[in-house]
Specification:
Oligomer: single chain
Order of helices and strands: HEHEEEEEEEEEHEHEHEEEEEEEEEHEE
Radius of gyration: 23 Å
Structural class: alpha+beta
Shape: globular
Helix content: 10-25%
Largest sheet: 6 strands, antiparallel
Number of helices: 6
Bound molecules: 2,5-dihydroxybenzoic acid, fe (ii) ion
Length: about 375
């Protein structure tokens, strides 16, 4: 007995000594990743918030950007829609300029509403129209301007949660007023936009994609041609990736962007993978079942598919195509050989939806 209590005392002393010197026994450690939850933001709610911000929040003070972030409720401190991907809805009001800056996180915009709006990236002005994807690869100067008389609204996507997690976030404001335009407007789109030819003797402004914009007017017919030819996938309808035409690789070094077309009435099979995705509904309505919960979506809604969750998409319309824009972190996972994927084999590859997500009562 005396021996036992001596042992218990010494054991306790061991843990006390460890704790006092920032040591921990592996056998006591609970290792858990971030609690990334499936979630959906309805457009009306987000639009209401960003419109109110338009009334109360000026740029550049108090806001360098007037963006309302879609924050995953499971990881509020990470300021991301997933642990790796930040998204936000940004509003630039008529006549406003969001001043230039640059940063180590990669960024992209998916244009929702507005015309006569542009982002100037490293001396090149890029006009933006609904459905266009505009890139600002890392450390390129970028400023946004709205020369129209209507609000401009778009979805921002950044890899900032990842970059902050790596303690590699560096940010610099542009001190000299506005960016000077040193290249013709839309130059990268005009010279790299076809994807199969590139200009000889042209130096891209920096590492990263030489193409800064992907036009919806080019992407939609491309997907439709693929759909005519039946290039359907099991899990993702007819999907395209926005590729870097300089090297045939992913959209950005850390994030890849896709457009998924769901045929009228289509119901994809379920799978899960280690990458996470943030979806933005470009057109149509339907639902995505995530780990047995149904998330019903309509145009301009955004939703999260967390890593390693079963998910399948349904187009609710029997007559109309649905288009889902998405951002994922496949390039990051591939870089570290972490990409894993599994199909659902039971029940013909379909989950049973046992609940429906209620956007009015989300948590
Ligand atoms: O437009 O440059 O939503 O740097 C977050 C960080 C937008 C931008 C965001 C940014 C921007
Ligand atoms: Fe930025």
């Amino acid at each position: 007995m005396a021996e036992d209590s001596d042992r218990a005392t010494r054991l306790e002393a061991m843990y006390t000594d460890m704790a006092a010197h920032s040591l921990e026994g592996l056998w006591r450690m609970e290792r858990k990743g971030p609690d990334v939850r499936p979630y959906l933001w309805q457009w009306d709610t987000v639009h209401r918030a960003v419109t109110a911000a338009g009334e109360f929040v000026d740029i550049p003070y108090p806001g360098e950007r007037r963006a309302v972030a879609l924050v995953n409720p499971g990881i509020p401190g990470a300021l991301g829609s997933t642990h790796a991907i930040y998204t936000a809805i940004q509003l630039v009001r008529p006549g406003e300029v969001a001043r230039a800056h640059r940063h180590t996180p990669n960024a992209l915009r998916f244009m929702i509403e507005g015309a006569g709006v542009s982002t100037t990236v490293e001396g090149e002005r890029v006009p933006m129209y609904a459905g266009d994807l505009v890139l600002t690869p890392n450390m390129l100067w970028h400023e946004h301007r709205n020369d129209s008389d209507a609000d401009a609204v778009w979805l921002d996507g950044l890899d900032s949660p990842l970059v902050f997690g790596l303690a590699a976030a560096v940010y610099e404001p542009f001190e000299d007023g506005f960016i000077t335009e040193t290249r013709p407007e839309d130059h990268s789109g005009r010279s790299y936009g076809l994807g199969t030819v590139r200009p000889i003797g042209y130096e891209a402004p920096a590492k990263g994609s030489p193409l800064l914009v992907y036009r919806w007017t080019a992407v939609e017919p491309a997907i439709q041609r693929m759909a005519e030819d039946g290039t359907d996938t099991e899990f993702d309808g007819v999907s395209i990736e926005y590729v870097n035409p300089g090297n045939g690789g992913h959209t950005l070094s850390t994030m890849s962007c896709w457009m998924t077309m769901l045929r009228p009435g289509e119901h994809t099979k379920a799978h899960r993978h280690t990458y996470s995705s943030v979806y933005h509904v470009h057109r149509g309505k339907g639902s995505t079942i995530i780990d047995g919960q149904r998330f019903e979506w309509a145009e301009r809604d955004s939703f999260v598919v967390p890593p390693w969750t079963w998910h399948e998409h349904v187009n609710a319309s029997d007559s109309d195509i649905a288009y889902l824009f998405s951002i994922n972190d496949i390039p990051t996972l591939e870089a570290f050989n972490l990409n894993r994927e599994e199909p659902l084999t039971e029940n013909g590859g379909h989950q049973k939806a046992t609940s429906v997500f209620d956007p009015e009562n989300p948590n």
